[in-house]
Automatic annotation (TrEMBL):
<dbReference type="Pfam" id="PF01553">
    <property type="entry name" value="Acyltransferase"/>
</dbReference>
<dbReference type="GO" id="GO:0006654">
    <property type="term" value="P:phosphatidic acid biosynthetic process"/>
</dbReference>
<dbReference type="GO" id="GO:0003841">
    <property type="term" value="F:1-acylglycerol-3-phosphate O-acyltransferase activity"/>
</dbReference>
<keyword id="KW-0808">Transferase</keyword>
<keyword id="KW-0012">Acyltransferase</keyword>
<feature type="domain" description="Phospholipid/glycerol acyltransferase">
    <location>
        <begin position="34"/>
        <end position="150"/>
    </location>
</feature>
<dbReference type="GO" id="GO:0005886">
    <property type="term" value="C:plasma membrane"/>
</dbReference>
<dbReference type="InterPro" id="IPR002123">
    <property type="entry name" value="Plipid/glycerol_acylTrfase"/>
</dbReference>
<feature type="region of interest" description="Disordered">
    <location>
        <begin position="211"/>
        <end position="230"/>
    </location>
</feature>
<protein>
    <submittedName>
        <fullName>1-acyl-sn-glycerol-3-phosphate acyltransferase</fullName>
    </submittedName>
</protein>
Length: 230
């Protein structure tokens, strides 16, 4: 209910400040545990990803830093919405709580970079292993999500939104990563590292495709196409 109330409030605003291009949404399972692993380009990302997930009839849970759970009304909303607390100051990574959420059937959104990218061109940074560990230990499918465009509304590490450009926000849902061989190895560190490499490769490839498509949409008809990389 907390998510749907927020959605009803935010949806009209989102329609005013962005266009949308969602692809592959049929790959999100209608029920059961799933880990969505997305790149991170703006503080606006969670709202835009949540909008997409809610439109598929699922309710997302996010890994969120513990300070957000301590801020009065905001903290109460985070708890009511079922997000998973990550206590960085005490060295706890929230893994146990996230694993419990998945085992109860949650759709968990994870940003494996751990923070908004610091690359000035929005390239993917080195990934942490948490998303793959969660998928391997829970048995949940691990689905890569490539997104771009939110930074044109709210640039990375900025608190000054650009509300009048109305850019297209692109969200591509990839096929679940095949982790069958790695799951057979059990909780092996090498399996986690190998899985994280697969996730990084998949996200990089998807982001290249997103960049190519977005670049093509801004080129005049008949212009030469150039490959854009992150």
């Amino acid at each position: 209910m907390a998510w749907w109330v927020a959605f009803l409030i935010c949806k009209p605003i989102l329609m005013l400040v962005r266009r949308r291009d969602w692809r592959g949404v049929e790959r999100i399972p209608a029920r059961g545990p799933v880990v969505l692993a997305a790149n991170h380009v703006s503080e606006l990302d969670p709202l835009l990803v949540a909008e997409m997930v809610l439109a598929q009839g699922r309710t997302p849970a996010f890994l969120a830093k513990s300070s957000l759970f301590e801020e009065g009304i905001v903290g109460r909303w985070f708890r009511a919405a079922g997000h998973v607390e990550v206590d960085r100051s005490h060295g706890a990574d929230g893994f146990g709580a996230a694993l419990a959420a998945l085992r109860s059937g949650a759709l968990l959104v994870v940003y494996p970079e751990g923070t908004i990218t610091k690359d000035p061109d929005g390239r993917l940074m080195e990934l942490k292993t948490g998303a793959v560990r969660l998928a391997l230990e829970s048995g949940a499918p691990l689905i890569p999500v490539a997104q771009r465009g939110a930074e044109e509304i709210l640039p990375a590490y900025s608190h000054r939104p650009k509300l009048f450009k109305r850019p297209t926000v692109t969200i591509d849902i990839g096929p679940p990563l095949d982790l069958t061989d790695l799951r057979q190895l059990g909780p092996d560190p090498e399996a986690v590292i190998a899985g994280t490499r697969r996730l990084a490769d998949a996200l990089t490839r998807m982001l290249d495709q997103v960049a190519e498509r977005r670049g093509a949409s801004h080129r005049p008809t008949g212009s030469r196409q150039r490959r854009t990389s992150w």
